[in-house]
Structure formats: C-alpha cells, structure tokens
Design goal:
- Helix 1 packs antiparallel against helix 4.
- Strand 2, helix 8 and strand 3 form a beta-alpha-beta unit.
- The protein is mostly helical.
- Its main location: membrane.
Length: about 300
C-alpha cells in the first residue's frame, strides 16, 4: 500500500499509463491482504456443532476472492493501456517514473519474500499464491522502468505497450493461482504428501499394511484419514497404542498436520472393501483365507 501511494502521485504528474497499470496492480495487492486477514482471524475460532471441522475453509474462499481481485486489476490495467495506445499522450517526469518503478520493484520483492516464507511455514496456499503474485509485480515494475527508458529514447509507444504486457503478466498470475486455490477447494492434495503419509504410517512397528489413505487441506492445515491393519491377535488396547504411535510420528514429520483419523483393522479384514458392503463379501472371504495362512487363528 505504501508503494502504491508513492506511485500514484508520480502517475498524476507524469501521465504514464505503464506506471498507472503497475500502481493499480499494487493497490490490488494491498487489498488482497484484507480477505486473508479475515480468513486467518476466523480460522482461530474453535469448531462448533455446525462447523465441526472448524473454519479453516474460509482461507480457501479468501484465495478465490484474491483471484477475483487480481483479475479485476488486470481488467482495469488492460483497459487503461489500450485506451492510451489508441489515444497517445505525452509522458513527463521520466526520472520520477523510473524512481517509482524502482520503488515498486523493491517494495514488492520485500512483501513477496515475507509472504512466501510464512506461507510455506504454515502450508497456506492462499498466502503462497499472494507471495508469487507480489514477486511478479516486482518484475512488472521493472517493465515500467524499461518503458520510461523507451520514452526517453524517443519511443513513446513503449509506455502503453508495457502496460499491456503487465496486463498479460497479471492474467498469468490469475491462471497459476487459480490452479492452486481451486485444487484445494476440491480437496486436492499434492501426490508427494500422500506418499509421505503412507510411508511414515507403514514404518511404524506393528503396522502390517496401510490400505486406504485420504488427505485434504482445510485452509493451511492438513487432515489425514488412514486405514491400517495389524495382527488380529492384538488386544484393542495394543491396537490403540499402535494407532497413537502412527499419529505421533505423523505429527513429528508434518508441522501443519492438525487432524488424523486412524482406523485400525485386523489384517484378516483390512480396508474399506471389508466393511460390510454386500457385493464385497466374497472378496473379503478370499482375503481372509489368504491371510489366515500367515496368521492362523
């Protein structure tokens, strides 16, 4: 916001449409902090009877709002650039435009580093997307600097052209951020996370097999549901201790893991296919026969 306010005065003085596009973009960036702040505030609330999983999903909705804000800034910047391209106007105070571009680049990079660092630490897709957005903004500010040099060299057409390039860069951010945010809204998760959860669970002593795993993000917190099989001769208490060992090992390896549901099955009836679905009865009997050769009753 500080960067955008500094730039807006120079836009007024110079009439640079490239700098105007960059300034609009920076105002858009500053406004994306508002839905994120609201989302993080709501996420701190304790789960209720109506929202038993808590309010972490609000963060994903904030990601959608951020994408819409970025898209709006692209539309405004594109309109202004096209208008100036069709109706060229002189650009003045080129030194001030260049200085504003440098300020914009530095300001955006500082914000980008901070947002991405914190986003990766807490596993927040929305915050990471916002950080990449700020980094691209820094590059667009450098594009404004190139435009100012072009105008100074006698090519004023470069100013609206740079504005159009900035618009294209903003649209690319919209596309990349949308993939990440909407994947999480649809309970998508990175495949490597799923593989890591399975490897950790299977490495716990007493676990014979991990048959089913479901992992999803709720905001920047990870939730896992695991079906694991154990020796059928174990007591309920021993099976419970093994499940706790799995949970503790997962928490050691995932700082952003907030919830785990571990269903312990006897190895003779493991997996979702063995939980009283009539059409799977024959499958279940066949599996029991195979397992009983290893764990005779």
């Amino acid at each position: 916001m500080v960067t955008a306010i500094l730039q807006i005065f120079i836009v007024y003085l110079s009439g640079s449409v490239a700098l105007l596009a960059d300034t609009i973009h920076n105002f858009g960036d500053a406004s994306t902090a508002i839905p994120l702040a609201i989302a993080f505030s709501l996420a701190r609330r304790k789960p209720s009877k109506r929202f038993s999983y808590g309010y972490g999903r609000v963060e994903d909705l904030a990601g959608v709002i951020i994408i819409l804000l970025i898209l709006f800034s692209a539309a405004v910047a594109g309109y202004e650039s096209l208008t100036r391209f069709l109706d060229p106007r002189p650009v003045g105070h080129l030194q001030a435009v260049a200085l504003a571009a440098i300020i914009g680049c530095i300001g955006n990079e500082v914000v980008a580093e901070f947002r991405m660092k914190v986003g990766k630490e807490i596993g927040s897709a929305a915050l990471i997307a916002d950080g990449y957005h700020a980094r691209i903004d820094g590059f667009t500010s450098l594009a404004v600097l190139i435009g100012a040099i072009g105008v100074w060299s006698g090519y004023p057409i470069l100013d609206p052209l740079i504005g159009m390039l900035i618009t294209i860069a903003i649209l690319k951010i919209v596309l990349d951020s949308s993939k990440l945010v909407f994947t999480r809204l649809l309970d998508g998760v990175e495949p490597e996370v799923l593989d890591k959860v399975k490897d950790i669970a299977e490495s716990v002593e007493g676990i014979c097999e991990v048959t089913d795993i479901r992992v999803r993000w709720i905001g920047h917190r990870l939730h896992a549901e695991i079906n694991a099989s154990v020796d059928p001769s174990l007591s309920v208490e021993e099976g419970h201790e093994i499940a706790n060992a799995v949970r503790e090992k997962l928490l050691e390896n995932f700082s952003y893991l907030s919830g785990t549901t571990i269903h312990v099955d006897p190895v003779t009836a493991s997996g979702e296919c063995c939980h009283c679905v009539p059409e799977n009865l024959e499958k279940r009997k066949g599996k029991q026969k195979r397992i009983l050769s290893v764990y005779p009753s």
